[in-house]
Amino acid sequence: MIEKRLVTDWVVTTLETASGMEVGRGSVPRGDADPPFYLLYSVDTAVGGAPLADMSEDASLVYQLTSVSGPDPEVPQSTAWLSQLEWMADKARSTFLGRDPITGLWLHPLLIPGISCMARRLDVEWGGQPGGTSEQEAGIMTYVQRFRFDLTPA
């Protein structure tokens, strides 16, 4: 059986390392971080595919990643930056879907003992949402993407 918690840990750690930004698990990182940051939500899980005699189920896990851009704290009256928001979305896309052009291998392999990644894809990309949060007066913009990871026991 594939432990989702281990995959979630990998998603968070990999994106934080690749982007240099914090990732909150369903809430603002540390509870008080100012943007920019990412929010991660686990939105779908499907299991199946194992033969009757095999107790190891395949899993398809979907994570929603919300990039959050906000005002520059050094600039009074500033708001979120669309270019920063798009950079964050590009960074997430390249982190999870990027491949080495020579070998074809993932730039960020899923390194969890006992789990192999069969496929990764971008399920949904709703893009930038000006004022897409309840904090419109704070000048925050969000960008939503959903990534699917199809996994099998190794």
Description of the structure:
The chain has a five-stranded mixed beta sheet with strand order 1-2-3-5-4. The chain starts with a helix and ends with a strand. It is an alpha+beta fold and 154 residues long. It has helices at 4-19, 82-97, and strands at residues 23-25, 37-48, 58-69, 115-130, 141-153.
Summarize the structure.
By secondary structure, the protein is an alpha+beta fold.
Q: What's the helix and strand layout?
A:
Layout: H1 4-19, E1 23-25, E2 37-48, E3 58-69, H2 82-97, E4 115-130, E5 141-153
Parallel strand pairs: 1-2
Antiparallel strand pairs: 2-3, 3-5, 4-5
Helix pairs in contact: 1-2
* Order of strands across the main sheet: 1-2-3-5-4
SS class: alpha+beta
Strand content: 35-45%
Task: Tell me the span between the first and last alpha carbons.
Answer: 11 Å
Inertia-based shape:
elongated
Q: Could you tell me the radius of gyration in angstroms?
A: 17 Å
Features:
5-stranded mixed sheet; 2 helices; 154 residues; alpha+beta
